[in-house]
């Protein structure tokens, strides 16, 4: 069927792009001999189609860009890291919207006889990945490790990141600039701002950056388990609060903060506006694993969100198109305060 592994990957990307509109995962069967992946993809497509039907959405067209890197390339086998940039345009109530998503997959291609066949596809599922135990706010290892190393937690103002902080009065009554938060989210939705450390699971770090761009003040306690702050790296030491970079910790901070960055818990996505935050608990067990920021609305007034980890732009808020989504998924909706 294919004379080399690259041809197989190109055809796979072409068919993946096509099924974003026609919803037919069966077209992958002739070239993908990974039944488990095809079944998972079919389930994902069915969820998306059910959501679109309920919203009155029709997929109009899709475009795909791709990058690939062979991490193991031999005469009869290749393992390839593939990045697909999928851009789908859909119509709803006479309006059109454009959604973008960066899907990453590790694909194994094997030569069988004279043809190359895809035998295994492993999608990137970092949206549901929990951080290492040492990074969780309820882990006790971090304070003890710092104590043993003779490190002392001290507040630190990073003027390079928040250049206007020094000029702001001690008593704040500054508006949350939702337009600036939105512009930042749009600028950096598919790349990392070099002013900050980037993480493999980067969703909360990204949302925190968007909030700061909108004027939210950092709460510098110098302690990783409290406040909401970022300094960066210092000699291999991570200097930021758990709430800055860990999904569940930011959710907890937003739910409890009484000063500085504050929010109101609301109970419907329709109550959200630009610059607000949605938190995701995929398993329904009370531990939140993902965060997004609201950057737009569809024709029915429902939120569209940007996110990192699986880089996404104007993605429908319920994330039924994610491999992380389960029937147990729960959401928390936070309306960020208009003034800090």
Terminal residue distance: 61 Å
Please provide the ordered H/E string of secondary-structure elements. HHEEEEHHHEEHHEEEEEE
> Fraction of residues in helices?
10-25%
Please state roughly what percent of the residues sit in beta strands, choosing from under 5%, 5-15%, 15-25%, 25-35%, 35-45% or over 45%: 25-35%
Report the sheet with the most strands, covering strand number, pairing sense and barrel closure. Answer: 10 strands, antiparallel
Provide a count of the helices. 7
What would you call the structural class?
alpha+beta
* Structure summary, number of beta strands: 12
Rg, alpha carbons:
22 Å
Low-confidence stretches: 132-160, 162-171
User: Taking all residues together, what is the mean pLDDT?
Assistant: 88
Basic shape? globular
Q: What's the gist of this structure?
A:
The chain is an alpha+beta fold. The chain has helices at 5-22, 35-55, 141-148, 178-187, 203-213, 242-245, 247-256; strands at residues 57-73, 77-92, 95-112, 115-123, 230-234, 237-240, 263-266, 277-281, 290-297, 303-307, 312-316, 330-336. Helices cover 24% and strands 30% of the residues.
Describe this structure in words.
It is a single chain. With about 350 residues, the protein is an alpha+beta fold. Helix content is about 25%, strand content about 30%. It has 7 helices and 12 strands. The strands form 2 sheets. Strands 1, 2, 3, 4, 7, 8, 9, 10, 11 and 12 form a 10-stranded antiparallel β-sheet that branches. Strands 5-6 form a two-stranded antiparallel ribbon. Strand 8 (about 275-280) and strand 9 form a beta hairpin. The longest helix is centred in the N-terminal third of the chain and has 21 residues, at about 35-55. The chain is globular and about 70 Å long. Residues about 130-160 and about 160-170 have low confidence and may be disordered.
């Amino acid at each position: 069927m294919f004379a080399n592994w690259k041809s197989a990957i190109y055809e796979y990307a072409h068919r993946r792009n096509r099924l974003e509109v026609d919803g037919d995962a069966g077209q992958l069967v002739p070239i993908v001999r990974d039944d488990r992946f095809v079944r998972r993809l079919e389930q994902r497509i069915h969820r998306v189609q059910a959501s679109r039907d309920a919203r009155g959405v029709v997929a109009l067209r899709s475009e795909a860009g791709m990058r690939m890197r062979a991490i193991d390339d031999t005469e009869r086998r290749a393992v390839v890291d593939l990045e697909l940039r999928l851009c789908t345009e859909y119509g709803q109530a006479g309006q059109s919207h454009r959604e973008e998503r960066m899907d990453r997959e590790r694909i194994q291609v094997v030569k069988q006889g004279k043809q190359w066949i895809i035998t295994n596809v492993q999608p990137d599922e970092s949206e549901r990945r929990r951080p290492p135990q040492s990074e969780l706010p309820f882990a006790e290892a971090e304070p003890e490790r710092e104590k043993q190393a003779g490190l002392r937690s001290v507040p630190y103002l990073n003027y390079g990141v928040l250049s206007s902080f020094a000029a702001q009065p001690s008593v704040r009554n500054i508006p949350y600039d939702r337009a600036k938060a939105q512009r930042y989210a749009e600028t950096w939705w598919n790349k990392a701002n070099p002013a900050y450390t980037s993480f493999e699971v980067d969703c909360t770090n990204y949302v925190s950056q968007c909030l700061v761009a909108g004027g939210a003040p950092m709460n510098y306690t110098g302690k990783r388990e409290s406040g909401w702050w970022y300094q960066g790296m210092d000699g291999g030491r991570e200097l930021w609060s758990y709430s800055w970079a860990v999904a569940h910790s930011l959710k907890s901070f937003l739910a409890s903060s009484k000063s500085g960055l504050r929010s109101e818990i609301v109970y419907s996505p329709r109550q959200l506006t630009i610059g607000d935050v949605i938190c995701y608990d995929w398993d329904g067990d009370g531990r939140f694993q993902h965060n997004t920021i609201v950057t737009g609305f569809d024709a029915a007034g429902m939120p569209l969100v940007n996110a990192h980890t699986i880089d996404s732009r104007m993605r429908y808020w319920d994330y039924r198109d994610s491999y992380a989504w389960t029937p147990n998924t729960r959401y928390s909706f936070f309306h960020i305060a208009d003034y800090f």
